[in-house]
Design brief:
Bound molecules: pantoate
Distance between the termini: 62 Å
Number of domains: 2
CATH topology of the largest domain: Rossmann fold
Strand content: 15-25%
Order of helices and strands: EHEHEHHEHHHEHEHHHEEE
Number of strands: 9
Helix content: 25-40%
């Protein structure tokens, strides 16, 4: 496995691989790699891509300094996991190279309005500006590629797709299914920070989604049902919404069809998100 840390070497490596006819499968991560990331590496390998994984804990997407401080960092384990899962090139850029002006503001910020303003965007101001800005830079450094993202961060994928469309970036965005533990909890680097009690209560996210999936109803009935499940588990709910799967606009009760249920809440001091496809029925009368 090749290891790269400078932007110059990263750009040169990707260019040389493309010149040899390889398609680059970019897997952007913030490290603390788990089976969800491994599934992205596998998805890229399954398409025959050259797997280029990045590890960079991007401070610009954290609107809370404590959250950034507490974010798990496991560099040795990550290197081993990347090697085990067939990553061809592991890129670990430094903060100084990625954001030379940090902690001062960087003059250029990518802002995706609309889909980036709601839900996570409303609850974590500036979060998606940080995500879009760093992902735009990862795309610029890698060049033409396929980029793999996990559906656990469903809204993040919608924001990135919008950015790719609006800026005509030479990137195919590939979304990959959520990977869950046996008890249903969606894998996330943040799960490492859950106490045993919070870990048990966090299974309410997938239980709420499962009950919404198994009992098609109006969008508001599903919202209420899911919120109650989360609150009963002592989760401080940020939102429990049912939305259009592309625009992420909240569904109305006179609408029917396939939608996406999106959940966010804080359990034991850790903010978690989860989502799943659901079917909504239109209110009668
Ligand atoms: O999903 C993540 O881990 C991050 O938001 C990403 C896409 C690597 C950007 O920092």
């Amino acid at each position: 496995m090749q290891r790269v840390s400078t932007l110059e070497a990263w750009r040169a490596y990707a260019k040389a691989q493309r010149a040899h006819g390889r398609v680059i499968g970019l897997v952007p991560t913030m490290g603390a790699l788990h089976a969800g990331h491994a599934s992205l590496f596998e998805a890229a390998r399954a398409k025959g891509d050259l797997v280029l994984a990045t590890i960079f804990v991007n401070p610009r997407q954290f609107n809370d300094a404590n959250d950034l401080r507490a974010y798990p960092r496991t560099p040795e384990l990550d290197q081993r996991a990347a090697l085990e899962h067939g990553v061809d090139c592991l890129v670990e850029p430094t903060l100084e190279e990625m954001w030379p002006d940090y902690p001062n503001d960087t003059a250029t910020t990518v802002v995706v309005r609309g889909v980036g303003d709601i839900l996570e965007g409303a609850g974590r101001p500036g979060h998606f500006d940080g995500v879009a800005s760093v992902v735009a830079k990862l795309f610029a450094l890698t060049g033409e590629c396929r980029a793999y993202f996990g559906e656990k961060d469903y809204q993040q994928i919608a924001v990135i797709r919008q950015m790719v469309r609006d800026l005509a970036l030479d990137v195919e965005v590939v979304s990959c299914p959520i990977v869950r533990d046996a008890d249903g909890l969606a894998l996330s680097s943040r799960n490492a920070r859950l106490s045993d009690d919070a870990r048990t209560r966090a299974t309410a996210f997938s239980r709420a989604l499962q009950s919404a999936q198994s009992a098609p109803a109006t969008a508001s009935t599903l919202r209420t049902m899911m919120r109650e499940t989360l609150e009963n588990a002592g989760i401080d709910v940020a939102y429990a919404d049912v939305v259009d799967p592309v625009t992420l606009v909240s569904s109305k009760d006179d609408e029917a069809g396939e939608r996406r249920a999106l959940l966010a809440g804080v359990v034991g001091g850790v903010r978690l998100i989860d989502n799943a496809p659901v079917v909504v029925r239109a209110r009668r009368g």
